[in-house]
Design brief:
It is a single chain. By secondary structure, this protein is an alpha+beta fold. It folds into 2 domains: 125 residues, Alpha-Beta Complex (Sufe protein. Chain: A); 39 residues, no CATH class. Helices cover 24% and strands 23% of the residues. It is built from 5 helices and 6 strands. The protein has a 4-stranded antiparallel β-sheet with strand order 1-2-5-6, covered by helices on one side. It has a two-stranded antiparallel ribbon with strand order 3-4. A hairpin with a 4-residue loop joins β3 and β4. α1 packs antiparallel against α2. It is globular and about 60 Å long. The chain starts with 14 loop residues before the first strand and ends in a 10-residue tail after the last helix.
Length: 185
Amino acid sequence: MSIAPPAAPRRPVHLRRITCEGFLRDDGLIDIEGLLIDTKPEPMRLVTKEVPAGSPIHQMRLRITVDRERRIVEASAYSEQGPYPACSEVEAGYRRLVGLRIEPGFTRQVKRLLRGVEGCTHMTELLAPMASTALQVIWGDSEIATNGEALAAQRMSPLGGCHALRLDGEIVRTYFPQQRKETTP
């Protein structure tokens, strides 16, 4: 395992925290909650208000509900703290995510749907890690494979999606031999 070398002398000027959580609902659907919080260690004067040091400049929350086929069936956005009163005016626009499927090209679709004044940059940024969280929840759920949905689970498998999970590598060879593919020299 690698250890990062010490950083050059520096001082903190901004902190962005992004948290994504997945929940299995009683009705079988999956809620993914995303939260983005931006703070600064010094007070910040904005056009409409003063933000005390350590207080949120942005505190944006999104919730999407997805089915087992990764289709969004519910979506809601909340601007709990924003730099401007108008930030909350885009919340209803995020309901347009309903019907989208989390699959390759999802982030591109979202950016097209909510670009510019149609959305909030901060809320829209949350959707990529939320989509990844949804895939982690669904792929890691053993119920999918046992409920006759093994094919769907295989289609969204992370195998082949990174260096460690390459199809000709040790992890796939050891734990997923049926997915193994040899490379030709």
